[in-house]
Amino acid sequence: MNPFWITEHPVAIVVAVLLVFLLVRSVYVLDQFQRGVVLTLGRYTGTRPPGFGLLFPIAQTMRRMDLRVQTILIGAQETITSDNVSVKIDAVLWYAIDNPERAALEVADYAGAVVAFATTTLRNQIGRCSLDELLRDRERISEAMRVALDEQTRGWGVNVKTCEMRNIEVPPSMVRVMAQEAEATREMRARLIKASAELQASQQLKQAADLLSENPISLELRRMQMLTEIGVEQNTNTIILMPTEFVTAAGAFARMVDRKGEA
């Protein structure tokens, strides 16, 4: 080969280099989790599947779209609840692209749009709830946020998977008030439980007394059982038992006196 061929044919060298460059630029490889949105002369002409492919240089451009689930951290948002309590809340959002064409053509920055709308939605949801609802119904509020976000982002080709509130910061003064309220509630429940137990015990004692009064022998057996229980323990108590007949006679005498008083 003539060593002076290169210097004698510079145009051919330039054309060859240009062709190699265009060939390299036309080749692409998409990963399994990617899709390629192709524009031909500025018009959408299709979405390419994963794998190897070719593009017409200069005439066609392609935007790679990642279909994997993405995570967004929403920084602490300070807002006021419906009962005028100032709180700070941060949240976590998971979303994924389910329509690459819309995500590429309908919104310039779908990730930034999702963050902005999620921040606004978080503030709106907190403003509709009281502090008690916010602390008690976190799952319900998070689900309401997810539904509101998904309704908006569907038009952008984005599907919001999950939305969770993480930390809820309450002012220290409100924390003390809530602790006092919780303590008062627990004390009220304890008193109600104690009163209910005393009521049930009194009802049981009344039933036992009615049963024993129907049969004097049962009362005598109960007295003997009581003596047995006392005798098990070592003590110096002196117990004087009165026969059941004395008690019965005293009751009869009291009734007779009452009848004479009425006469």
- Spatial order of strands in the largest sheet: 3-2-5
Please bin the fraction of helical residues. 55-70%
CATH architecture of the largest domain: 2-Layer Sandwich
Order of helices and strands: HHEEEEEEEHHHHEHHH
Distance between the termini: 154 Å
What is the highest CATH level, the class of the largest domain? Alpha Beta
Mean pLDDT: 79
How many DSSP H or I helices?
A: 9
Structural class: alpha+beta
CATH topology of the largest domain: Tetrahydropterin Synthase, Chain A
Number of structural units classed as domains: 3
The biggest sheet amounts to: 3 strands, antiparallel
Strand content: 15-25%
Task: Give a structural overview.
- The structure is a single chain.
- This protein is 56% helix and 24% strand.
- The chain is an alpha+beta fold and 263 residues long.
- It has three domains: 5-65, no CATH class; 70-174, Tetrahydropterin Synthase, Chain A; 204-232 and 242-263, no CATH class.
- Strands 3-2-5 form a three-stranded antiparallel sheet.
- The protein is rod-shaped.
- It starts with a helix and ends with a helix.
- The mean pLDDT is 79.
Topology:
Layout: H1 5-8, H2 10-26, E1 27-30, E2 34-40, E3 43-48, E4 51-54, E5 60-66, E6 70-80, E7 86-97, H3 100-105, H4 110-127, H5 131-136, H6 138-153, E8 158-169, H7 172-214, H8 216-232, H9 244-262
Antiparallel strand pairs: 1-4, 2-3, 2-5, 6-7, 7-8
Helix pairs in contact: 4-6, 7-8
